[in-house]
Each structure stands twice: as C-alpha cells, then as structure tokens.
Amino acid sequence: MAVKSDIEVAREAKMKPIAEVAAKVGVPAEALVPYGWTKAKVSFDFINKIQGNPDGKVILVTAISPTPAGEGKTTTTVGLSDGLNHIGKKAIAALREPSLGPCFGVKGGAAGGGYAQVVPMEDINLHFTGDFHAITSAHNLLAAMLDNHIYWGNSLGIDQRRIGFKRVLDMNDRALRSIVNSLGGVSNGFPREDGFDITVASEVMAILCLSKDLKDLENRLGNIIVAYTRDKKPVRCRDIKADGAMTVLLKDALQPNMVQTLENNPVFIHGGPFANIAHGCNSVLATRTAMKLADYVVTEAGFGADLGAEKFFDIKCRKAGIAPSAVVIVATVRALKMHGGVAKDDLKAENAAAVAKGCDNLKRHIENVNKFGVPAVVAVNKFITDTDAEIAEVQKAAESMGTKAFLCTHWSDGGKGTEALAHHVVGVIAEGKANFKPLYPDDMKLRDKVKTIATEIYRAADISCDSSVETQFKDLEAAGFGHLPVCMAKTQYSFSTDASKRGAPTGHIVPVRELRLSAGAEFVVVVTGEIMTMPGLPKVPSADSIRLDDNGLIQGLF
Fold first, then answer.
1. What is the distance between the alpha carbons of residues 362 and 376, in angstroms, rounded to a whole number?
2. Which residue from 175, 270, 295, 296 has the fewest beta carbons nearer than 10 Å?
3. Distance CA 339, CA 67 (A)
4. 396: which residues sit within 8 A by CB, 6+ positions away?
C-alpha cells in the first residue's frame, strides 16, 4: 500500500470548528478573532484576563544537528503534545509560523508530518493569517520613511554611509542580497548601497516575538537603530517617526494564532524567526498564553540544540522569565548515520557502527542541554528502515549520558506513538530536578559571551575577529549595550562554521564576520562564517513541483 503524503493526510483530516477546539482549554468563542472556521487569533482582552492563572510546565523540543536525512522536530513537538493529551494531560503545542522561503525552496513546510500535523496545513504553510505580510510591510515602511527623510532634507544629519537597516522579503532571493537603490535621477533620491534580508531575519520579526503587549511592541520598534550621523550618534525608528504607524500595521499580527492538530488538540502558531540567522523561537506572547491555559506547553526551537535551544535559553527565557522543566532532543537513525559518515544514498542499509559513531553528535547536544540545568530525554523519530540494532545504539548512547531514548512512532500513529515518551516526560517534570540557568550572566562582556558560546556549546578553541569587529565590540560596550545577550548567526549543519563537518568536531576557530545591533529586540546578532541573512533557492527548488491540479487542489506542498 502506498504511503500517503503529508498533504494527503492533512486533506483527509476531520477538523473541528476552532471555537470547539479552543473551548477544550477554556478559551470562549467571544475571545477569538476568527479567520475562517479553522483558525483564529486570541484577543488581548482575554489574554489579560487570564494572567492570574498558574503557569503550566514548559517542555522544549530541540534536535541533533540537522542533515539532509531529516529529523522531524516539529513533527515530534506535535506528536508529544497529542501524546500528552492522549494520556489525559492538558497540553498545548506552541510553534513558529513557516516562512515562504524554505516552503518554496528546499526544506518544505513546517506544520509537522504524517499523522502528527497541524491543520489546515496549506493555509499555515502559505499566507496563514497574514502575520508575515504585516511584518514585511511594517519593516519596509520604516525603510521607506528612512529614505524619504533623507530625500526631504535629512534634518537628522544621517550619514548615508552608516545606514544599517536593510529591506526584507519573505522569499529566498539571492539577487537582492546586495543592491543599489535610488538610481534614475534627482526625483528618485540619493543613490546608495542597500540590500534585502529574508523577513524571518528582520528585527521587526524578533521584536514581535519578544513583545509582551502593544505598548511594549511600540517601545521596542521605536528603539530600532536604523542609521548613524556623521559624528556616530544613533538614529532610531522613533526619530524617523515610524514607530506609531508600524504598530498600527502590527496590531493584529501581535495576537497569537490558534489552530489544531489532526487529533483536534489546540496549537498556537505565532512568529517565525529562523534559528541560524535569528533567535529561532515562537512568540513570547503565544508561549506565555499557552502556559496560562494548559498544564504542559510543548514548544520547539529551530535547528539543532546548539542554535535554537541555546537561543531559547539565553534570549527568550532570559527576557520572558520562563524556566523550562524538560528538554526533548529529537534524533533519527538516518541522521545519526550521516553524522557517522554514511552518504545519503546509502542510508537504507543497516549500519549500527555508523549510528554509534554519529551518536557523538547526540551526546554533545545532551551534554550542552545539561549545562543549562534542564533534564534532557531523547525522542527517536522512527523511520521504516530503522533496525533494532541501530535503535539499540541510540538507546545505549543516551543511557551513557544519564538519560533515556524513546522510540516514537507519531508519524504513523499520532499521539499514541509518543505515549511512553509522554509518561516519562511527565515523570521527569514531577521529580522537580530542573534548575534552569542561562549560560552566561548579563554583565559579561559581549566578546566574552560570544567566546563562551563558541567554546562551551560549539567546542571551538577560540573565536577570531578582525580589527573592525573588535572595534564594534568596544563601541557597543561604550554605547551601553554590553548587557544584551548575543544571537549567533551560524550554519545549522555543524557545531563549527564549516557545514561539511558533521558529528562532534572540536578545536575549530569560529570566525566572527560582523556584529549587528538589534536595539529594539535587545540582542546583538553575531554573524559568523559564510552564513547569509538572505538565503538563495537551490538548483531544483520545491516550487518546481507545487501546482494546482484539475480540481483546484494544491499538489507538491509538503
């Protein structure tokens, strides 16, 4: 029998009205702002009313370093949330919204897979409730007002050589990484070098995901530094007078979105910064709202634990006052084989020795998570080609690190497939062993924060910075930004900055290419290696296969 595609499974889903799904966790119909009958936003009025509720326990789902073989972090997040509900617990998943860039590029959608999906899948992976469009519009409004200010006399004395605010687009488009704007004569303004980032790398995206309410949102937007004057004084968004209009564009987008799993359990999907170039977590507002509604909140952070989990702990939890109770690290036998040196075309053949070697990557992630004082457990996302001998190697590796690995079949069985994992996670949380702490203190020097992450998490020997970056560190400290956390922009495929170095490399050097201050989001982006903040499409993008069939149904979306 042919295996159904994700979109075929999603299309057969028996969805319930979103008001009925929301009612399961105490959200009344009048608290919803509906977008059709299967998705809705939860109103600020209701969110404010439930602030006196006790906080549920937060479970972070992260993963080993990703490979082309796939890991299934979102799928596992959905599966575990369904599994917790299956064993009688009140649980909500809190996820990021997918970006159109990878959806039409190489990674595909981000609504889970198999029978551990969030629906309506097509809507979520495409325009959803318009949040990303609002973020793109607000960001580019500021860019337009900045250039307009210069055109009409530049009363703030902006140095056009020191403009640091690019435009954004929610699409992979390498042609826009570096451009020259305002060509064509006097009426078009003053020509200057410019560029585009992808929307998920926008500081506006980060701000929306870290804001606690509309007032906080407007204040953070106003703090964005867009340029400097000739005497190097910062020019902020509020100096351009764009913060009010941007807040108006984002007023609905800030309300968290609620949808449902295939098993009709509630899910928040809100915000979507990438973890390799931004902070990689869904919105604070969605997570904290879920904590007020459920006993367990299962949330995920992008890519491997060296990126998403580190930023979840050091940025999101630090800023939002969240103390996670447990971490689930997702691994697949296929991915561990690749970390053990097996080529993608050879993954179907049993190779327990390669799995054992690849488990060095898994062990490193377990060890890193433990540094934050949060207990970790491993979820083995099962593929049909996995053998008992290979799975035994993963379980042995987990046990050697003082934890357990659970075989999970949520892709084929839904919530039932994570029942054992769910029981174990509940037990771990009940033991109360979590003692969360960030990796570094606020008052550590910025350069030392970067080096601490590089040596403690990436296992590098050191970081390297040219004189211009060293000057940036000193200037940011002198300007009063030394207390901010750092947000590493690094390849997701390796602990090093070389994507080809799988497994658990040590002793490498992390080259710091550039620092970007996000004064509104309140972190410093540290660009390393060859990482790009505007990705490109692959030679054969997913968009090649996406189309409508004769019945008007979408084909090729996954």
1. 11
2. 175
3. 8
4. 356
Query: 278 is written with which tokens?
Result: 């931004």
Cα separation, 456 vs 110, in Å, equals: 30
What whole-number distance in Å separates Cα of residue 499 and Cα of residue 491?
Answer: 6
* Angstrom distances, CA of residue 69 to CA of 300, 342, 343: 19, 11, 10
Give every CB contact of residue 468 below 8 A, 6+ residues apart in sequence.
none
Residues marked active site are found at 73, 75, 96, 107, 275, 303, 383, 411
pLDDT digits (tens, 9 = 90+) for 239-254: 999 999 999 999 999 9
pLDDT tens digits, one per residue of 284-296: 999 999 999 999 9
Give 109 or 314, the one with higher predicted confidence: 314
Q: Which residue, 453, 457, 530, 522, is CA-closest to 491? A: 530
Question: For residue 97, what is the DSSP state?
Answer: P
User: By C-alpha distance, which of 432, 423, 486, 420 is closest to 324?
Assistant: 432
Q: Which two tokens stand for residue 336?
A: 């561990």
Distance CA 461, CA 484 (A): 24
Q: Bridge partners of 463?
A: 510
Angle between helices 352-370 and 388-400 (to 10 degrees): 30
Residues 6+ apart with CB under 8 A from 402: none
The interaxial angle of helices 214-223 and 243-250, nearest 10 deg, is: 140
Residue 5's pLDDT is: 78
Beta-bridge mates of residue 407 = 380
> How is residue 80 written in tokens?
């575990």
Contact 82, 410 (CB under 8 A): yes
